[in-house]
Amino acid sequence: EGGMMGREVLQPSSIKPQAEAAVDSSGRPQPPQELTEEQKERIVSSEDFSLFMERAARLVERALCDSSDIMFDTLGYNEDGDNLASVRVAKKIQFFDDHWSAGRIITSMDWSNNHPELLLVSHYKKPASSTDPDGVALLWDLKYKKDTPDYIFNSQSAVMSACFSDFHPSYIIGGTYSGQIALWDIRSGKHTPVQRSPLSSSAHTHPVYCVNVVGSQNAHNLLSISTDGKLCSWNIDMLSHPQDTLELQSKNTKPVAATCLSFPCNDVNKFVVGSEECVVFQGQRHGSKPGIGMHYEGHFGPLTAVSCHKAASGQVDFSHLFLSSSFDWTIKLWSLKLQTELQLTSKTARPLCSFENNTEYVYDVQWSPVHPALFASVDGEGRLDFWNINADTEVPILSEGLDCALSKCRWSPNGHYIACGDVEGKVHVYEAGEGLCAPHAEEWLMLQQTLLDLQDSQELTSALS
């Protein structure tokens, strides 16, 4: 299918009659003979015909929903020419499938870097008994305003995390509640995985809350974490066993029940994990001391998300910054740089800042990929908050309220869109105004000063206590 998306070409070549057209004595072709009922039935029931019809139906559906060129995906989004220069967001579209989304909490979301109009959404199983598979992941297309997903992926166990692979455009990877890793291939035309990891003690035995493909085109791995305390590294083309397993252990040598994972910008060795133990841990995959190194203490509830700084195009390097969110109603800002002798000796760090404006569980937090001081969060009250810490550290600069608890949020790769998922299975996609998401040149230097002010405040608080 053109690598995955791109230009869809309908080629039902393998379902046409194989015999060549008959010719008369003068070499002129005779009219083709009508197919028998048996031949028609064989063609209609073939797998190739089914795939052809599925692709054709998708194109027709796009044509009915959009007036642009349905045979090719462009990357321009703001076709309506809306003026979004102010600090605001506008609802772009809502994704919801009556059959596959209804009643299923959204467990993860991921935008494609290869095709930025594509959004992958995974769902938990339905609370009521159902004949449908427990695991569901849906692939939605932002470009075409249609109310059905482009692809539907199923698994026997609920999908707790899902991601694209930048190096395999047709692969979809999922981590399941059973501990299995599932891999779907869009080219196969199947709803079920083409590969699964085994249920084995050598791999995960608890729910897999994060999957992530890291590395380069020639050297990359699939990484997964679970509440069983393992970080597994996989060859994405062979899931029979992990290539490497790193045991994550805290100070008291207990396994870390990891719930979320993030890597600093342009670093695939160091990582940050949040845990059920209310602690954030920093570790490394390789080196003289692989495993957990630093402890970041300050939360009073299990961690729901960690997000390392992503906006790396400015004059100042902020890759040492990361955010965390928790059931304790707070978001906290941390630095991987150790600032004091006490931190160096105790291997324990405190937050630079605590954002305490929420009155419900904070379920997710995500740095903007383009603005150095901007991040978004969602909570159990249905609030989508936008924070610019250069402007204010006490309250968000913008809040959108929905009538349902929100479980996940993700920025699009260009930082102009943000998707948030709720506990009823709906995905809400907002377009951010230029005044909100586009940084000014001085934002990096302003953030540098903001961090100095936060450090001074932290030191003063420590001295007074």
Task: Report on the architecture of this protein.
There is one protein chain. This protein has 465 residues and is mostly beta strands. Helices cover 13% and strands 34% of the residues. It contains five helices and 29 strands. The chain has helices at 37-44, 47-65, 341-346, 434-437, 443-464; strands spanning 89-95, 106-111, 118-123, 135-141, 151-155, 159-164, 171-176, 181-185, 195-196, 208-215, 220-226, 230-234, 244-247, 258-262, 270-275, 279-284, 291-297, 303-308, 321-326, 331-335, 348-349, 353-355, 362-367, 374-379, 383-388, 398-401, 406-411, 417-422, 427-432. It has a five-stranded mixed sheet with strand order 14-15-16-17-21. It has a four-stranded antiparallel sheet with strand order 1-29-28-27. Strands 2-3-4-5 form a four-stranded antiparallel sheet, with no helix packed on it. The protein is globular, with a radius of gyration of 25 Å.
The largest beta-sheet arranges its strands as: 14-15-16-17-21
Q: Give the distance, in angstroms, between the N- and C-terminal Cα atoms.
A: 63 Å
Structural classification:
mainly beta
* Unreliable stretches covering 5 or more consecutive residues: 1-19, 67-84
- Tell the overall outline: globular
Biggest sheet record: 5 strands, mixed
User: In which range does the helix fraction lie?
Assistant: 10-25%
What does the average pLDDT come to? 86
What attributes does this structure have?
four-stranded antiparallel beta sheet; mainly beta; 34% strand; disordered N terminus
